[in-house]
Amino acid sequence: MALDRKQTPNDLNAFWMPFTANRQFKKSPRMFVAAKDMHYTTADGRQVLDGTAGLWCCNAGHCRPKITEAIQKQAAELDYAPAFQMGHPSAFELANRIIDIAPKGIEHVFYTNSGSESVETALKLAIAYHRAKGQGTRTRLIGRERGYHGVNFGGISVGGIVNNRKFFGTLLAGVDHLPHTHLPDQNAFTRGQPEHGANLADDLERIVALHGPETIAAVIVEPMAGSTGVLMPPKGYLEKLRAITKKHGILLIFDEVITGFGRLGAPFAAQYYDVVPDMMTTAKGLTNGVIPMGAVLTSAEVHDAFMQGPEHMIELFHGYTYSGNPIASAAGIATLETYKEEGLFERAAELAPYWEDALHSLKGVRHVIDIRNSGLIGAVELEPIAGEPTKRAFAAFLAAYDKGILIRTTGDIIAMSPPLIISKAQIDELIGTLGDVLKALD
């Protein structure tokens, strides 16, 4: 007998869920069975307002017709084509369209399957780039405390979230970390970029002096750190990182898996902050979260360093079975068309002030110790329960779900990033309901 997909399976044991309290979930499962535009439908028929764009990825909302139709058509026409020594038109067309909206100076696209794989690819490209340039001593990678760069070994090595790192051994050698930019004593309740903290970028000079610039391949940061709790770059911080990396011949990589594709009201954070790196990692909003796909965007300088030697030789020994998958490529093209036709990047920019005011209306609500925002991203930080970190925010997450809104928590921070199609009335509903939840928390 076929499973009715709108019913909860009678055995939840086999699926080991990622980043989930599995035992708690399986005692009281929360199941989504359908979605449309701004809402999920639960297994018991309730509507839940999506305050997180799924997982920072459904920027155009759910089950959008153009994207759905493109996937259906492509699956029936060309289901799979190898990307090694072969091609198909959609992968090239999508790459062109990505470059059309990318910052000036970014000219090439290397496809992956996820943000984690985009990070791994960018780190490998950085090391290989310097070797191709005759600087093979440049192998060291610099990340940042509280940084999130996916869950593969390279990503957790340059990342700086302790629970993502400490269970998995010694990780990659030759990695160092910049200090994080979260200064709550100086920057609490900031709207947009905080005033204090640009000087933290100067620590890169200390790291360079410690190891020698000739040993350092790349610095990778999220221009706005998302998964760690929505940390905005202080004014002048990214500009300093760009200047220091250029001074020492170090590549700068922006992890734009969250900030890419309109989340801040511009195509990419590089444009929003007017700082252009050498490489950008992307995923999530590239296909609206519908089909797994990622991409590393590179400057011509990075790409061209590999285009040497005999033309029949492979220039880069790296790639994935699903790089530029036809169905994912079709989804990506349709997603970019949806963003453009509906003016969703511009809509995010226009809604940002309303979102900001709504979010900061929670200042003074019980347990709230900080609020921060940029574009259509916001965070509400809660005072932890003494001796029980994360418990208060998780209680808020469960209560919010029961009241019909989806939020995301990281530590005792509530993070929100709604689809760019959200209305002002839905912003009021989301923030109003969250306020009710917070007022009732112990």
UniProtKB/TrEMBL annotation:
Extent of the signal sequence: none
Keyword Transferase: yes
Entry similarity comment: Belongs to the class-III pyridoxal-phosphate-dependent aminotransferase family.
InterPro entries: Aminotrans_3 (IPR005814), Aminotrans_3_PPA_site (IPR049704), PyrdxlP-dep_Trfase (IPR015424), PyrdxlP-dep_Trfase_major (IPR015421), PyrdxlP-dep_Trfase_small (IPR015422)
Top-level taxonomic group: Bacteria
Gene3D superfamilies named among the record's database cross-references: Aspartate Aminotransferase, domain 1 (3.90.1150.10), Type I PLP-dependent aspartate aminotransferase-like (Major domain) (3.40.640.10)
Co-factor requirement: pyridoxal 5'-phosphate
Molecular-function GO terms, alphabetical: adenosylmethionine-8-amino-7-oxononanoate transaminase activity; pyridoxal phosphate binding
Protein name, per record: Beta-alanine--pyruvate transaminase
CDD domains: OAT_like
Keywords tagged on the record: Aminotransferase, Pyridoxal phosphate, Pyruvate, Transferase
One of the protein's GO biological processes: biotin biosynthetic process
One Pfam entry name: Aminotran_3
Keyword Transferase annotated: yes
